[in-house]
Amino acid sequence: MKKSQRLQNSFLKYCVYTISLGGFLFGYDTGVINGALVFMSKPDQLNLSPTTQGIVSSSLVIGACLGALGSGRVADHLGRKQTLRLIAIIFTVATFLCAFSFNYWLVSLFRFILGVAVGGASSLSPMYLAEISPRLVRSHNVNQNAIFIVLGQLAAFTVNAILGSIWGNWHDIWRIMVLSAAVPSVALWIGSFKLISSPKWLIFKQKTYQARRVVNQLGFRDEQKFVDHSKQEVSQSQKVISWRDIFHNRFMRYLLFSGVLIGFIQQISGINTVMYYGTILLQKVGLGVDASLYANIFIGAVSVIASIYGTRLTERSNHHLMFVWGLLGNAVFLLILGLILKTSFFSTEMTNILVLLTLALFLANHQGIVSPITWLLLSEIFPQRIKGKLMSLATATTWITNFVISLVYPQLIAILGTAWIFFLFAIANGLSILFVKIFVDQKHLAAAYQQVAQSKQN
């Protein structure tokens, strides 16, 4: 048994797995559209065109952007526990409304509302996990949320494949696929009643006695040290730094630019086009509906395994260097995918196998290296006093870029074809390496961090 696991008591483990259900729902609701979109698009259902497919898929993403931006303020007012419960309620209600919608505008509207919950969970869950975890197990517990995201995607792919293969002739099956997301959302709502409030939030609200009791329940070793440190953090966070201050300080501007660029790079890699449109993409390269649905299970399983081992690898590596190598891997695998589809050396069956294997390698590389490194870099480059503002803008950048790509992807694939889409994303990853090398310099980041961190004493 790992040391980090031995250090956690049963109540802390319960809190970690329950809070991580927020990440699971994040993954499930972003993954369920992958299979449901095929059936939604049928003429006797919503009769979606490439344009309306993009609207339905990306509506959740733009809602997630707003949810990520606003969840921090709500969590500071209501508390982490109450906000997570509210997110679970929004997940459940929006899921039911989406499943019983009768046109694509309503589906898009309710997926937008669902996106607010997804964005809220994407921001709240890792923060909540970090605040309830003792230092020695903090990274391990926060990484649980990242693993639960890909587990949620795998679960959605599996449910879609089973439902699609058994009741595929009943085109309304997409409603059951969408509705299945209500199961984990109800589980999160029920589980939230036994959760504990964040001790840091309690100190922020000047409830020190309750915070001490919570710290004891969670198994913190040095109660007084934690309380004193948290009070110091609260004191510093109350020294408001405006956006005007940030834009007038060249070191803060550089950190902001670097964070926004890192978030932008993660999304132009092409990963979410596979997660959202994987079934449609695999159909276009020659697989049938059933085969495409089951192929997504394989892709999802690869993502889970890669994320588990990737998070361990990234904890003991040079994050900047690993980011560059991860982007290079993305570019190579996407280039190979394009070449496989452009050549006629292989039979249809062999082409399908090679596409699936190379696609799995691309996902393993991205989910095991690029994605976790992105969030680790963003958590490291911002000093505490400006982390909230800059992190929120960097996170919003990932969602906005995700929205644009999700919106235009169906039209791009209709115009350019599948092979050229892979070439396009391969070029984007290659250019991203140059952006990182030129604009996100490791020494400059460290120097800017130091300047901003020391300026709080002035």
UniProtKB/TrEMBL annotation:
Location within or outside the cell: Cell membrane
Coarse class of the protein's main subcellular location: membrane
Domain Major facilitator superfamily (MFS) profile: 15-444
PROSITE patterns for the chain: MFS, SUGAR_TRANSPORT_1, SUGAR_TRANSPORT_2
GO BP term, example: D-glucose transmembrane transport
Record lineage: Bacteria, Bacillati, Bacillota, Bacilli, Lactobacillales
Membrane topology: Multi-pass membrane protein
Protein family per UniProt: Belongs to the major facilitator superfamily. Sugar transporter (TC 2.A.1.1) family.
PANTHER family per the UniProt record, alphabetical: D-XYLOSE-PROTON SYMPORTER-LIKE 2
GO molecular function annotation: transmembrane transporter activity
Annotated InterPro entries: MFS_dom, MFS_sugar_transport-like, MFS_Sugar_Transporter, MFS_trans_sf, Sugar/inositol_transpt, Sugar_transporter_CS
Transmembrane regions: 12-33, 53-72, 84-106, 112-130, 142-167, 173-196, 254-279, 291-309, 321-341, 353-378, 390-409, 415-436
Record's protein name: Major facilitator superfamily permease
Keywords: Membrane, Transmembrane, Transmembrane helix, Transport
Organism annotation: Liquorilactobacillus vini DSM 20605
Domain of life: Bacteria
GO cellular component, one term: plasma membrane
